Amino acid sequence: LHAGTERYLEGCLDPAFTRIALYDGPVALGFERWEAIDLEFSVAQFEGILELLIAAGELDEQPVEPLARILVGGFNMAGRQIATADDPARAVVEYGEVLRRLIAGLASHRPDAS
Fold first, then answer.
1. Contact 2, 100 (CB under 8 A)
2. Rounded distance between C-alpha atoms, residue 30 and residue 41, angstroms
3. Is the pLDDT of residue 23 over 90?
4. 97-113 pLDDT, tens digit each
5. Any idea of the CA torsion for 67, 73, 74, 79, to the nearest 10 degrees?
6. DSSP annotation string for 35-102
7. What is the dihedral of CA 36, 38, 40, 46, to 10 degrees?
């Protein structure tokens, strides 16, 4: 999840990526079709990652689909803000910090069994 976040943030500095994935794609496809694709791919990817992390005890048991949808929404918003920022490199640092803290906050807080 952390590595994927870093790759996504790097992608947000690529104007072609942000134009296609965050602007032109949704407009050309229409909101309903774009959302269906986002659900099929982005949300499904997050669900898979979250399920693995829960199974490994890295995340507490919780509803996976709503969490995946919220994370995708947050990542999409961060990407759009980075793409339109006056200083995209600074925006990557700022939004990256927020995304990393959000992800870190999801970590399991179970006490060690030791």
1. yes
2. 17
3. no
4. 999 999 999 998 766 54
5. 150
6. HHHHIIIIIHHHHHHHHHHHHTTSB-S--HHHHHHHHHHHHHHHHHHHHH-SSHHHHHHHHHHHHHHH
7. -150
